Amino acid sequence: MRKLIEGSMAVSESVRLCKPDVIAAYPITPQTHIVEFLAQMVADGDCKAQFINVESEFGAASVVLGAAAVGTRAYSATTAQGLLLMAEVLYNLAGMRLPLVITVANRAVSAPINIWNDHSDAVVIRDAGLIMLFAEDAQELMDIHPQAYKIAENPEISLPVTVNMDGFILTHAFEPVEMLEQAFVDKFLPPFEPVVKLDVENPITMGLLAEPTWYMESRYKLKETMEDSLAVIDAVADEFKKKTGRYYGGLIDTYRMEDAETAFVAMGSLVGTLKDVVDTLRAKGEKVGIIKIRSFRPFPQAKIREVSANLKQLIVFDKSYSLGLGTILQEELRSCFYRQKHQPMISGFVVGLGGRDIPPQSIINSYNKSRGKELLNEFVDLRTDVVGR
Question: Which sequence spans correspond to the domains of the chain?
């Protein structure tokens, strides 16, 4: 069944179909609609989860940590300052190997106060040990949450997964979405069987003190698991494609790369704009394509090198910036080709910070500006009248 729904509703409907046992979240723009819809579903009896009201995002993360620790399927959602407030618990979730899903409605981080979209919040937690997936549109949001739970709950992985969606651009926009059926999700996503759990009949200790004798080894095992998850993410996406015909990439996806010499690289909803730009440039004879980064953590270095084998240039569009370093996604791309035989030219552009519009012409201008040049940390459509004051 096809339905015209808001992106936030696509998320809440998808989460409901995954049958979480516990939902805990604190409202914060632009995530609020997701948990409002879920709270209404619980109140109406359409979702059998226990919805727990909390006093903060730190509290929400702590509740779902406890829920996952006792072996239940748990869910939360947040954004921006809320995600940062969760940060301490997110490290614990990963270190304790607790599988659950958190949707992040990506938003700029204050100050100055800004409620619109960029990826400044997500990149802050990139080293926490979470699997981080980025969705392009509402249909992918409908389909990605069962995949996220299946990845998280794989007994060889057992890690939290964040599903990132662009705030307002996806959370508040209405799109036609092919709805999933409960029978399909039940078959695709089996009941949660935790690897370990807190149980009074079989007592164990979780999150214990690790002295120097053990701490380094625990982080090494987490590193190995993140590497193992590369294959699992791809396998789950392939399985979903076989059963539905819909595919968004596993670790990455590509668009019109068959003879491309230049590829645009981006994450999230910007990929949709890039597809329009690529079609326009292709009509003019330009050999351009797209590499969509769907998995930011683990970062798919081998896959990127594979699809870049014949490229002359990568043009990276970042919705975040590491102050004192530069564009984050660009630096990740550079690490892929360090000491590699084939090293395409890489240019990095900063776009859309704080919700700044990214019109197709701005992408085309960046493409023309970077031809034959390696441009670093170029801010697109910067208001020089403001900066110059």
Answer: 2-244, 252-387
